[in-house]
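User: Some background: our group keeps a shared notebook of sequences we're curious about, and every so often someone picks one and asks for a predicted structure to add to the entry. Today it's my turn. The entry only has the sequence so far, pasted here. Could you supply the structure so I can complete it?
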Amino acid sequence: MKSWPAMRDWVLARLRVVALAATTGLLGACATPSSSPQAIQRLDPAELARLEAARPDAPLSLDEILRQSRAGVPTATLLETITRTGTRHALNPSEAIRLREQGVAPEVLDAITAAQERWARDQATADKVRRDTEQAAALDKAKAEAERYRRQSQPQPYWDPFWPYPYAYPPGYPGWRGYGGIGWGGRIRR
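Assistant: Of course. Here's the predicted structure to add to the notebook entry:
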């Protein structure tokens, strides 16, 4: 039978070997590339053109709408462009009159105003949902904090190995007395 120092040295040597093997394996796994460079797939030009066509266009400015109306673009086409690009403007009455006098169709102005109203309604709904979500998260956090505080503030039961069940008296209980002394079960009553 080996002595304790010899046994300890043998165990430590084995632990060093295992740790070295684990470290080498982890470093080898980190250094190995996950995929080869040949695995990169390129998009063909037709697929790239289809993706570019699906990208939404920038919203039209009022000057662009005015320019297209003066150029003779049909109202239906202009309405479809406004819908597709998500164009919206908060028109005041003087701007609406100015655009109508310069040749913009009333249907186009109505579509721009309706888009602005839809956007404002959607923003109000999104703000309400965001606010409600933040309030619910804050309430959940407060409940969790209160539960954590409640659990920490409760007295932990004292387990006496020579008594068959745990017992604990909270401070302030009429029969509670603090324990003094040193060591196991040594009580000094005050």
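Suggested note for the entry: The two ends are 54 Å apart (CA to CA). The chain has a mean pLDDT of 78.
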